[in-house]
Amino acid sequence: MDNKKAVLGQYFTKKEVASNLVSLLKQYAHYSNDIKVLEPSFGKGSFIEVLKENGLNNVKGCEIDPELTTQPSDFFELPLAQKFDLIIGNPPFTKYNVKDSYYYPARYSAGEIKSTHYIIGELRKKAKMQVENAFILKSMQHLSNETSSIAFILPISFFIKNKNKEVKKALLRRFHTIVVYQNDRVWFDEPIPCCFAIFTNSPEFHNKIVILFEDGKKVKEIIDISEVYSEIIPRSFLYKKNVKLSGESLSKFLKPKPLKYHKSYSENNISGSNILERTKIPIDAVSEDYKLAVVRVGNGSVGKAGLVNIKKDVLNDMFYVFDFESPYDGDRNLKEVLCKFLNENREYLLNITFRVGSKSIKKSDVLDFRVTLHSTGKQVYAGL
Ligand SMILES: C[S@@+](CC[C@H](N)C(=O)[O-])C[C@H]1O[C@@H](n2cnc3c(N)ncnc32)[C@H](O)[C@@H]1O
């Protein structure tokens, strides 16, 4: 297999990360050392090693890749009669553009354990689904009883608003506590945006989601479990909540629907790398020709803003271009002030949006941005 790493999702958890996650789990799910544990896709075995170091010796593992184990086994073929008190690990994640990294129910139709034994509801109608979701759903059928837990590293996108609704619904039928943990470290040999999610039934956190983020300091927030369908990515959730921008939202100044603009990937004069050279409207130009361009995607440039000539400039496809509401379209000073303000506070946009693959922002992130305008005589300037 040429692209084995992508197909099988082979990103191995660093041992110190697994150790940190197991310590965290122990704070929320209290187990004796003789419980039955499953690591359903153990890779190079970092979780199993750490579990054993923590005194948990009754650990079973599956790993499909014969290059990683002498006894390869497919988790989707593990008999459902095998039950566990804790299922923990880092399942493979589907890469949206790698066809073979998805889970296909049809692949298991001839075997003894059929997908219909664990794939539920609307998802049964689908020809394929994300493999991490299939791991969650099957794991739920392997749990011993109501004190059992699942603790998985998951792509951070799992907790994006309205995503994976069916799987979240199924989880809520079984568990009344969710812990979502994220920190600012790299957990694998590549920086994949992910989190550690514990699905359990903690008497202390009945119907609660505990959101945790660490970046030197530890931040914790406890919210109602019904919030599971909203965006509960720890980093962005806590940042949005704690950094309150005040003043008027940019939706007062900008039209809600971004403009169509001259776009070329290869022959453009404006891209994320030079947009910051375009923050002023040339003195002899018509203010109304200049619109606000904000980089919407791209790790290094997201949130950078400039004023582009909508008639002449050609941009690559990384931008939202916003038109100004009519009272402000002729106000070159205000346009330049808003553009400068966005650039000075770009950190805000960077922090509220952490997505899989690349960082991207929604148009509402720009429109909801708040600015306080002050004026001295004719001059307008902005502050937070
Ligand atoms: C993201 S890696 C994580 C490995 C390990 N859990 C860790 O934390 O380092 C996912 C592992 O799942 C394995 N895998 C993929 N599909 C599998 C399946 N159906 N059954 C068992 N293992 C599988 C891959 O070979 C890979 O080693």
Please explain how this structure is put together.
- The protein has two domains: 4-242, Vaccinia Virus protein VP39 (Rossmann fold); 251-383, Adenine-n6-DNA-methyltransferase TaqI, Chain A, domain 2 (Alpha-Beta Complex), CATH 3.90.220.
- The protein is 22% helix and 19% strand.
- The chain has helices at residues 4-7, 15-28, 46-53, 131-141, 165-174, 234-242, 326-329, 332-344, 346-352, 363-367; strands at 37-39, 59-61, 86-89, 149-155, 177-183, 194-200, 208-214, 218-224, 248-249, 290-295, 305-309, 319-322, 370-376, 379-383.
- An eight-stranded mixed β-sheet has the order 2-1-3-4-6-5-7-8, with helices on both faces. Strands 9-13-14 form a three-stranded antiparallel β-sheet, covered by helices on one side.
- The longest helix is centred in the N-terminal third of the chain and has 14 residues, at 15-28.
- It starts with a helix and ends with a strand.
- The model has no long low-confidence stretch (mean pLDDT 91).
- The site of S-adenosylmethionine (SAM) has 23 residues, from α3.
